[in-house]
């Protein structure tokens, strides 16, 4: 039987609902220097929505930020508490000066801050989602090697997420009893949990913001939609689902095939959506070779045989 107390290993991907596809694509590839590792569409629903994946050369787990451009749908996300509000990405601590200048050159307003002893640069995605580049040492995940940002100062991958909540204690119960987490730091209404070996790619911060309105759950521009965490295999994933259901989180989804990985989804008690993901052995190379990775649009199964319709329906995207 799988040990569910250690099942959640690290982030797999963080998924956002953004504005236009072009604005998002340019921000992630031209400003942040991430690789476009997949261009496809949302696997759910009856109306096509782009699904764009960004990461390092192979799109390794915990280097991935993925986006649903929502402007075309006309739906705007409802921000508030009980929702993931920010993502933190990891760079070398010696690279913060480079990034401060680079972001300024691109007209992006940057704020320097220090949170839980970590130096960081705070800025926002064009759609308003909060980002922070956090300076760390010893992150061995390889940044994208062929982008506009030199590899030695490139983004290593995710560092953490920040989840706004009404009640920190409710989340402590979920993280420790259900999500293989442990409380590692606490200050001024902020609690940091880490999974797996801890450190970059394994951090979940909760901040108490009870004064804010309840956030919405619908896909809509300007919100973080969910965070996926890597689990080792299907047996572990099945055990995580059974364990969560056994302690009272009965709304865990069935396993869903997302083409490049398979996932289960659960609402945390705050409402932020978490996902436990098993990568397929082929990963992003399942439908295109490494040399072509991310270069052409991949039709999702729900719209199989409708490539021409999808291309004509979805907003134009230059890449
Ligand atoms: Fe996901």
Structure described in brief:
16% of the residues lie in helices and 34% in strands. The chain has 319 residues and is of the alpha+beta class. It binds fe (ii) ion (FE2).
What does this structure look like?
- With 319 residues, the chain is α+β, with helices and mostly antiparallel strands.
- The strands form two sheets. An eight-stranded mixed β-sheet has the order 2-3-4-1-13-16-15-14. The protein has an eight-stranded mixed β-sheet with strand order 6-7-8-5-9-12-11-10, covered by helices on one side.
- The protein has helices at 21-31, 96-105, 168-178, 234-246, 307-313, and strands at 10-18, 35-41, 50-55, 64-69, 83-92, 111-115, 118-124, 130-136, 157-165, 182-187, 190-194, 203-208, 223-230, 256-257, 261-267, 273-279.
- It is globular.
- The longest helix has 13 residues, at 234-246.
- Bound molecules: fe (ii) ion.
- Fe (ii) ion binds at residues 13, 15, 226, 228, 263, 275.
Secondary structure elements and pairings:
Layout: E1 10-18, H1 21-31, E2 35-41, E3 50-55, E4 64-69, E5 83-92, H2 96-105, E6 111-115, E7 118-124, E8 130-136, E9 157-165, H3 168-178, E10 182-187, E11 190-194, E12 203-208, E13 223-230, H4 234-246, E14 256-257, E15 261-267, E16 273-279, H5 307-313
Parallel strand pairs: 1-4, 5-8, 9-12, 13-16
Antiparallel strand pairs: 1-13, 2-3, 3-4, 5-9, 6-7, 7-8, 10-11, 11-12, 14-15, 15-16
The structure holds fe (ii) ion (FE2).
């Amino acid at each position: 039987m799988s040990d569910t107390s250690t099942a959640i290993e690290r982030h797999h991907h963080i998924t956002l609902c953004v504005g236009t596809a072009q604005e998002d694509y340019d921000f992630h590839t031209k400003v942040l220097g991430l690789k476009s590792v997949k261009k496809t569409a949302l696997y759910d629903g009856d109306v096509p929505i782009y699904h764009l994946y960004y990461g390092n050369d192979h799109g390794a787990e915990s280097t991935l930020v993925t986006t649903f451009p929502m402007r075309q749908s006309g739906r705007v996300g409802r921000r508030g508490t009980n929702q993931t509000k920010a993502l933190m990405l990891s760079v070398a601590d010696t690279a913060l000066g480079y990034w401060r200048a680079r972001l300024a050159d691109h007209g992006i307003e940057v704020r320097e801050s220090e949170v839980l002893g970590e130096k960081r640069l705070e800025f926002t995605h064009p759609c308003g989602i909060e980002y922070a580049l956090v300076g760390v040492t010893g992150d061995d995940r390889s940044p994208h090697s062929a982008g506009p940002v030199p590899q030695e100062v490139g983004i290593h991958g995710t560092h953490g997420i920040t989840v706004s909540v009404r009640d920190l204690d409710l989340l402590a119960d979920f993280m420790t009893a259900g999500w293989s987490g442990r409380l590692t730091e606490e200050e001024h209404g902020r609690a940091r949990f880490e999974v797996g070996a801890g450190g970059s790619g394994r951090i979940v911060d909760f901040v108490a913001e009870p004064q804010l309105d309840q956030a919405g759950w619908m896909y809509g521009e300007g919100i973080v939609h969910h965070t996926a965490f890597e689990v080792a295999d299907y047996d572990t994933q099945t055990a995580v689902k059974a364990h969560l259901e056994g302690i009272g989180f009965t709304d865990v989804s069935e396993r869903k095939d997302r083409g490049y990985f398979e996932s289960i989804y659960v609402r945390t008690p705050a409402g932020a959506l978490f996902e436990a993901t098993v990568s397929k052995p082929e990963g992003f190379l399942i439908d295109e070779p490494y040399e072509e990775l991310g270069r052409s649009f991949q039709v999702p199964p729900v719209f199989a045989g409708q490539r021409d319709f999808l291309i004509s329906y979805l907003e134009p995207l230059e890449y």
